UniProtKB/TrEMBL annotation:
Cross-referenced PANTHER family: BINDING MONOOXYGENASE, PUTATIVE (JCVI)-RELATED, TRK SYSTEM POTASSIUM UPTAKE PROTEIN
Name of this protein: Monooxygenase, FAD-binding
Domain FAD-binding: 5-349
Domain of life: Bacteria
Family matches, as SUPFAM superfamilies: FAD/NAD(P)-binding domain (SSF51905)
Lineage summary: Bacteria, Bacillati, Actinomycetota, Actinomycetes, Kitasatosporales
Record organism: Streptomyces himastatinicus ATCC 53653
Names of required cofactors: FAD
KW Magnesium (keyword) present: no
Length: 505
């Protein structure tokens, strides 16, 4: 049987895999996505797009079609440990201070539509059965009867129970789960006064009673997203993540928490999850890389999972594309692990802390800690710290360079260019790096690689971007900045060479 050849094969058509497929296709890299499911899972799942993820999606023109599908309701701040103080992202100067809420499957639909329009392919019903890496690439065998796939690189985006990870025997160290809970999209035919009528701050949507804890989020009309778990009794010994969730089980939980007047009208889908915490030790194993839940899992607190994976894809995409196309400096692809592994480790760390604070049956000591922590969250400095942590806006990569902006995001400023007004985010639509000159420091005869765009622009007088000239990577993070022409002459060529080999594209 002949092999299917491609530059990159991505295993898993969730938000991480499809974002990566878009990024690679945007850079002209031939990409094939293998997905074991024959059709998209239409479960709401993780659908909170945090501020930094929203900014990255906006920079590619992907956010607006998602916002048009957003779940209706008032804007609500992000949360930490389900505590009753919303996180305010306003001090971080973002256009998206509140998470954008929509079902995960609709996020996937937008991403797949845009990725395939650029030439990426998605092959469904293709579960991976074997992965054979060698020095030049990877060969993948699937269950769908299609030909084996031969690719230069493989990226595993196939979830917490990654088949790729298991096929290669890659360890997934960490802590096993301590409970199983249920996530379900349901319809109610009757609702008591205890059922929330509109989406609000998360503490108003949580409740516990009669041996259950629960969170119920209105999705419009009679539809709700229900999350619940039991406490005060042991789960049946034969209960696993794959045990089907029956309507009777869901109805019993609803009655226990929301009263006999709350009647289940139907279940659209339901699944179980745990609070396990794990992370692979290396995000790259030769020609195989790991992203999203295939690389890290954690308790579902603070709406981090989808965002962590999508940001993995934005970090990896341009680096892998440059490597495949042959204009990446040595070691560029390895910076994916160096930059993203610590980010996920930090998320695992703070979701573990949230897990303690969010315990539905806290000890007397934890209850006291929660009261004090809630008071601390009302202090502006504490709230800013936590909002930056949860939203991703505080993320700072360890990028070499003396300027204080290196490794940081730049807020999406209004700009005036010779071609007219624009926004900083709009400059990243092609997926290129951007050399932004706001002080006339870059000489006219500067020599740039093909995927670095020079933009001369001015922000409003009241806006200070923090430097006279900035080199921003395709994912929007500053990799060089300067305030005088001499630094531009001396440092800029070295900064460009650190990310893109000087030459044609």
């Amino acid at each position: 049987m002949n092999e299917t050849e491609t530059d990159v094969v991505i295993v898993g058509a969730g938000p991480t895999g499809l974002t990566l497929a878009y990024e690679l296709a945007l850079a002209g890299v031939e990409t094939l996505v293998l997905e074991k499911l024959t059709s998209r899972n239409r479960q709401t799942k993780g659908g909170a797009i945090q501020a930094r993820t929203a900014e990255l999606l906006e920079s590619r023109g992907l956010l607006e079609p998602m916002r048009r599908r957003a779940i209706p309701g008032p804007p609500v701040g992000a949360n930490f440990a389900l505590l009753p103080v919303p996180l305010d992202c306003g001090p971080w100067d973002t256009r998206y201070p509140s998470p954008v809420m929509l079902p995960q499957w609709e996020i996937e639909e937008v991403l797949e539509e845009r990725a395939t329009a650029l030439g990426a392919r998605v092959r469904r019903g293709a579960a991976v059965t074997a992965v054979e890496p060698d020095d030049d690439g990877v060969t993948v065998t699937t269950t769908d009867g299609g030909p084996p796939v031969r690719a230069r690189y493989l990226v595993a985006c196939d979830g917490g129970r990654s088949g790729v990870r298991k096929a290669l025997g890659v360890p997934f160290p960490g802590r096993p789960g301590t409970y199983l809970a249920v996530l379900a999209d349901i319809r109610l035919s009757a609702a008591s006064a205890l059922v929330p009528r509109e989406r609000g701050q998360i503490s108003t949507l949580t409740r516990q009673a009669n041996g259950y804890w629960s969170m119920l989020i209105p999705l419009g009309d009679d539809r709700y997203r229900l999350t619940y778990g039991a406490y005060g009794r042991e789960d049946p010994t034969d209960l696993t993540r794959d045990t089907p969730v029956g309507e009777d089980e869901i109805a019993a939980a609803l009655r226990a928490v929301y009263g006999e007047e709350t009647v289940l009208g139907g279940v659209d889908n339901a699944s179980r999850f745990s609070d396990a915490t794990r992370q692979v030790e290396r995000y790259r194993e030769g020609r195989v890389l790991f992203a999203g839940d295939a690389a890290h899992i954690h308790p579902p607190l603070g709406a981090q999972g989808l965002n962590l994976g999508v940001q993995d894809a934005f970090n990896l995409g341009w680096k892998l594309a440059a490597t495949v196309r042959g204009h990446a400096p040595a070691g560029l692809l390895d910076t994916y692990h160096a930059e993203r592994h610590p980010v996920a480790a930090r998320v695992l760390h703070h979701t573990s802390a949230q897990r303690v604070l969010a315990d539905p049956r806290p000890s007397e000591d934890v209850a006291a800690l929660r009261d004090i922590f809630t008071d601390l969250m009302r202090l502006p400095d504490t709230n800013r710290y936590l909002s930056g942590l949860i939203s991703g806006l505080a993320l700072h990569y360890d990028v070499s360079g003396a300027h204080p902006l290196t490794g940081r995001r730049v807020p999406d400023a209004e700009l005036t260019t010779p071609d007219g007004p624009t926004r900083l985010s709009a400059l990243f639509g092609p997926g290129h790096a951007v050399l932004l000159d706001v002080a006339g420091l870059i000489p006219d005869d500067v020599r740039l690689p093909g995927r670095v765009d020079l933009v001369r622009a001015k922000p409003p007088a009241e806006v200070d971007l923090g430097a006279g000239a900035l080199l921003l990577r395709p994912d929007g993070y500053v990799c060089w900045a300067a305030d005088d022409a001499e630094a531009c002459r001396e440092e800029l060529p070295r900064a460009i060479a650190a990310y893109l080999v000087d030459g044609t594209d």
